[in-house]
Amino acid sequence: MLEGKFDEAALLKKIVDSIKDSVKLCNFNCTEHGITVQAVDDSRVLLVSLLVGQSAFSEYRCDRDITLGIDLESFSKIIKCGNNEDYLTLLAEDSPDNVMTIFEDKKKERVSEYSLKLMDIDSEFLKIDDMDYDTVITMPSGEFSKIVRDLKNLSESLTIIVTKDSVKFTSEGESGTGSVVLKPYTDMDHPEESIKVNLSSPVNLTFGLKYLSDIIKATSLSGTITIKLADKTPALFEYKLDAGGYLRFYLAPKFDEDD
Amino acid sequence: MGVKGLNQLIKEHSPDAYKEFTLKNLFGRKVAIDASMCLYQFLIAVRQADGQQLTNEDGETTSHLSGMFYRTIRMVENGIKPVYVFDGKPPVLKGGELEKRLLRREEAEREQEKIKETGTVEEIMKYEKRQVRVSRDQNDEAKKLLELMGIPFVNAPCEAEAQCAALARDGKVFAAASEDMDTLCYQPPFLLRHLTFAEARKMPIDQIEYGKVMEGLGMSQETFIDLCILLGCDYCETIRGVGPVTAYKLMKEHGSLDVLVKYIEDHPDKMSKYKVPENWPYKEARELFHNPEIANSDDISLKWTEPNVDGLIEYMVKQKGFSEDRIRSGAEKLKKGLKGGVQGRLDGFFQVVGTSSKKRAAEPKGAKGKKPKKK
C-alpha cells in the first residue's frame, strides 16, 4: 500500500496546479523511491515529467508499485479543501479503486478525509534520453514568467535567441513587436537571482506562447528555472523542488515550413 | 462502397491497430483526404433544419461548399494541413458497381414518386438522400473553392483512395483519410476515419494502423487484398454464401483466392454451397489493388498558401449566397492557421516504450481500445 505524508499541503497543491492546465488525466506511478508522473498533452506538443522524491515527504511508504489514474480537475478540487499548512497524507491500497487524501490541522484537532475515484487511463510511456543541449540557461523563475506574460500580449510565438553574451526573448505580432535581452549576472547575496548561461553553440528557437503560459504556472514551485535548448529539438524547462524532485516540461519548437 | 465486414474483422483480430482520438491529436499533421467521398457526405449531411439541402438564390445546391469551407477551416484551426484528392476516371471494372449505384438511385426516385402523396416527410427525405450523387460541376466548384482558400488538391488519375494512400506511403502526408475501408488495400501507414464528420456529432476519429492490422490478422499484403475482394469490393462480385467470418477463415486456410477457387472446383461435394461466379474477374480486381493507376508523389508538390479573400467573397458571397461576415471570419482563421510556422510534435523525438495502463493486460479481448471509463 501507499502512504505518503507531506508536512505541508501547499506543496502538492502547487504541483497539481502547475500541471492541471497542461494535462487533464494522468497516471501517478508510486514506487518505493517516490511518485512520478509522465503525461503528454492532447496535441502531443508538451510533455510533463514530474518526480516527487521520497525526501519531499515527511513519512513515505510504498511496498509495491502502484498506479493511480487521476483526473486532475477533480483532484485539484479536493486538494483545495485543505489549508496550506495542514499535514496532507495520501493513502491507497495495493490495487486501488480510489485514493484517500487526509488533511490534519496542526493546531486544532481537525481531520478531514476525501476519497477520489481512480480512472483507468491509457497512456503511452515515452523514453526520454539524456540529450546534448546547445545551451543551458538558469534564471529566476519569476523573471521568465514575466517575460512570457508580457510577450503573450503581442503574439502567439516567442523566439529565444542565445548568443555568446546574451539571451534574447522576442515576439512579433500584428500590433507590434517586443523583446527582452538578458545578460549573465551573478548575485552573491541572492544566488537564486543570478542568471547563468552555458553555451556550446548559439541557438534560435521559436515556441508557442500558449504552451509557455501553461508552463509558467509552475513558477511557485521553485525560485529558479533551468531552460535547456538545442536546435530542432524539444526544449526542457525544469523547476527543481527544494524538498527533492523536479517538474520538467518538454516542449516541441515551432518550425518554418521549408518544403 | 467499402469492404463489407472488414471493420469488424480488424476490430476483432487487431484491436491494437485502432486508436480513437479527437481532432486536436492530429495537431501539426498533414493529411490526404478523399474529396469525392467527403463531398458526398456533405451533400447528405449538410442540411437545413427542414432537411432540405442548402441552396443559393437560384436554387443551386451549396451544401458541398458549406461543408468543404467550414470543416476545412476547423481542421486548419486545429493545426492540421489537409490536402484533398479528387477521383479521376473510374477503372473499367468499376463499371458494374457504378451501374448498380445508378439503378439504386433510379429505384429510389421511383419509390419517392410513389409515396410522394402519402409518405411522411422523413420517408420522402430518405429516398431523396439515396438519390444524392456528386456531379462533375460540384466537383469543379469544390476545387475552385479550395483554390481560393489556399488549400492544395490533387487530381488523381484514377481512384482517389489509392492516391491518398500513395501520398501517405511516400511520406508526403501523415495519413490517408477516407471512410472507405478498401483504402487499406493500398497500404497507407495510417488510415483516418470520421475526420470530416460534423463537430456536433462528437464522433471520435478512428486511426487505423496498417502494420498492426496485418500483424493482428496474421496475413501478408497479398492475402489481405484477396480477403477484401472476397468480402466484397467495388470491382467484382463475391462468392455467394461467404460472409466476413467465413471469408476470414477461408483466406487463413488457403492463403490466396487462386488456391481457394481451385479447391472449391476440386471438391464439389464439400464446397457445393459456395458458388464461384462465372468468369470471375478477381485477378483483374487484385491487379487494381496491387498496381493502382496513381500519379508519382515526387511530381506532386503540396503548398498551403494565404486565402484569396476577395476571390472568396466574390465566389462564395456574390455567386453562392453565403454570408459575407462568415466568409470573412473564415478567411481570417485560415490566415491565422497558416502563420507563425508549424508547431512541431514530440513524437519524432521520444520513443514510445510501452503503455502504462494497469488493467490493459487483464482486459478481455475485444474490450481493448475503448475509452477509459470511470469505475
From TrEMBL, chain A:
One of its GO terms (biological process) is error-free translesion synthesis. Pfam families: PCNA_C (PF02747), PCNA_N (PF00705). Residues 127-254 form the Proliferating cell nuclear antigen PCNA C-terminal domain. The keyword Nucleus applies. PROSITE patterns: PCNA_1, PCNA_2. Belongs to the PCNA family. This is DNA sliding clamp PCNA.
From TrEMBL, chain B:
It is found in: Mitochondrion; Nucleus, Nucleolus; Nucleus, Nucleoplasm. Residues 356-375 are annotated as: Disordered. Structure-specific nuclease with 5'-flap endonuclease and 5'-3' exonuclease activities involved in DNA replication and repair. During DNA replication, cleaves the 5'-overhanging flap structure that is generated by displacement synthesis when DNA polymerase encounters the 5'-end of a downstream Okazaki fragment. It enters the flap from the 5'-end and then tracks to cleave the flap base, leaving a nick for ligation. Also involved in the long patch base excision repair (LP-BER) pathway, by cleaving within the apurinic/apyrimidinic (AP) site-terminated flap. Binds 2 magnesium ions per subunit. They probably participate in the reaction catalyzed by the enzyme. May bind an additional third magnesium ion after substrate binding. Residues 147-219 form the XPG-I domain. Signal peptide: none annotated. Pfam families: XPG_I, XPG_N. This is Flap endonuclease 1. Keywords: DNA damage, DNA repair, DNA replication, Endonuclease, Exonuclease, Hydrolase, Magnesium, Metal-binding, Mitochondrion, Nuclease, Nucleus, Phosphoprotein. Belongs to the XPG/RAD2 endonuclease family. FEN1 subfamily. Its main location: mitochondrion. Its EC number is 3.1.-.-. Gene3D superfamilies: 5' to 3' exonuclease, C-terminal subdomain, 5'-nuclease.
